[in-house]
Amino acid sequence: MLRVSLRTARWAHAKVTDADIAAFKEILGEKNVLTEDLDKYSKDWLGKYEGECPAVVKPEDAEMTSKIMKYCNEKNIAVVPQAGNTGLVGGSVPTGGEIVLSVEKMNTITSIDGISRVVESGAGVVLQSLEDALLPHNLTVPLDLAAKGSCCIGGNVATNAGGIRFLRYGSLHQSVLGLRVVTATGDILDLRNKLPKDNTGYDLKQLFIGSEGTLGIITDVVLQVPSEMKSSNVALLGCETFDGVLRTMQHARSELGEIISALEFADARSVEMSLSHTGNDHPFADGERPKYYLLIETLGSNEDHDMEKLGNFLDDVLSKDVVTGTIAQDGTQTKNLWAVRENITVSFKDFGKHNLKYDVSLPTSDFYKCVEDTQARLDQEVGKGECDVVGFGHIGDGNLHLNVISNNPNVSPSMEPWLYEWLTERGGRYVFFLLFALCYL
Q1: pLDDT, greater one: 427 or 67
Q2: Model pTM score
Q3: How far is CA 411 from its chain centroid?
Q4: Rounded Cα distance, 260 and 165, in Å
Q5: What backbone torsions phi and psi does residue 248 show, to the nearest 5 degrees?
Q6: Segment 58-112, tens digit of pLDDT
Q7: Beta bridge partner(s), residue 109
Q8: Handedness of CA 401, 405, 410, 414 (dihedral sign)
Q9: Nearest CA-CA partner of 408 in 370, 356, 358
């Protein structure tokens, strides 16, 4: 695997001294300051990006965070905030000489109001732990990610993470009711609010949702959470043309309406790699291997009603653009269908030493053209057969995960800035999921 060194500092900042380490320990306690075995914090999730840091500090609340940030501001010490460190593009990796401020000790769920459907928690609560705590109250988190067992809610909010249920619940701009934030100068902004409707004044919390740690460190989150749906169904469909995928998706929106919760896309190569990595059987037992896959999830309150709607929809599309498909019959089959989608990213390392990842949003009509044009460009610029370009993602909201897999280390110059120009011409965007970027003002 290619490891990218991030040793060059972006600007001049003070070198951390023994006196600084002693000050950190005075503020936080010795157990909350690490100076050894820091690989977990100085490398990214896939081990591609590697930096260095002299210390990791772990404040337990906003007040401790404020003291650390005030000290660092006075001493000109650079800080990299870090949540679950599950990003894939090196944004939470220290570039050289900064300290890492980890929010993982802020892992308390403060309150759950089952009537108002509001939860307050520390930024370091793992997404799966938050989900587990809500289930006894018949509530769920409005966010679902493949990294949910490791990522933290503070990092999710800082990156405005979308996930597979964006289609159903929208972005975190809609779900976050309040935040508590510590700025780079150590000021505490208490923007916590538990009211679903508050029309007074400026909605300052929105500035920090998606700010990636550049404006401050999120320490506490208040979320409006939905009720858990009792009926869940998952279907995986195969199409031979991408136009067929688009027509099937539009038909799903029309026929499944209020119960549809996820529309996920993957091309054939992505699915092949995922299944090869896990060793699981292909979900289509009939031997069909279509060029494109569409995973549809429904969530509702009445199983008979939902299953009837899904059945009628499948009967209709199987006579049109869908060449094959399957519906999960139990929890195990549901898990296996989702596993095809969720293991795509981790499978790429099995097929090439160098993997370029681009997370882009673009008009749905151009969704797969991005993959095709990228493959054509690299065939011309790098050489035919040198690169494998694959695409998957949240087609329901136009979010494509574009990946270039190769054993050639010199592919990046052929991608950048060409890809950004390609996106700009079509009204697209390059989406960064950094799980906290550098916070130093």
Answers
A1: 67
A2: 0.88
A3: 25
A4: 9
A5: -65, -40
A6: 999 999 999 999 999 999 999 999 999 888 777 788 887 899 999 999 999 999 9
A7: 121
A8: negative
A9: 356
